[in-house]
Amino acid sequence: MPSPASIERNEPDPVPPLSPIAKSLFANEVAELIRTVYDPELPVNVYDLGLIYDIQVDDSKNVHIMMTLTSPACPVAGSLPGEVQVAAGLTPGVGRVSVELTWDPPFTLERMSEDVRLQLGFM
């Protein structure tokens, strides 16, 4: 009879922790794919529009995205977060992707990049 130490286990290897730099680089990759999602009323992607508040990456490359919309009455409130989730899910190596919609802090024009404000005539 084999000793308990010699029994082979089929447990997954533990995931080595990602460095803060690796997490940041991966979050940037996710952001690039989120930039393919455009607000249907403006010619601007949701990332540069300032709707993405945060992208968190864990050691398994699971991604949690905190985002908002331009207003609670936004006509694409039911679909835009899902589009962001799908786009982020296309990142090579990504695990699970979750999107959380928040209204705090509320969206303001200051969240837009300066280039976008110029493009839309807000400067």
How do the strands and helices of this protein lay out in sequence?
Blueprint: H1 20-34, E1 52-57, E2 63-67, H2 80-89, E3 97-101, H3 114-119
Helix pairs in contact: 1-2
Strand order of the largest sheet: 1-2-3
Q: What is the CATH architecture term?
A: 2-Layer Sandwich
What is the helix fraction of residues, given as a range? 25-40%
What's the end-to-end separation, in Å?
78 Å
Going by CATH, what is the homologous superfamily?
Answer: Fe-S cluster assembly (FSCA)
The low-confidence runs, each spanning 5 or more residues with pLDDT under 50, are: none
Rg on CA atoms, Å:
19 Å
Number of strands: 3
The CATH topology comes to: GMP Synthetase, Chain A, domain 3
> Globular, elongated, flat, extended or rod-shaped: what is the shape?
elongated
CATH class: Alpha Beta
Beta fraction = 5-15%
Give me the number of helical elements: 3
SSE sequence, one letter per element: HEEHEH
**Count of individual domains:** 1
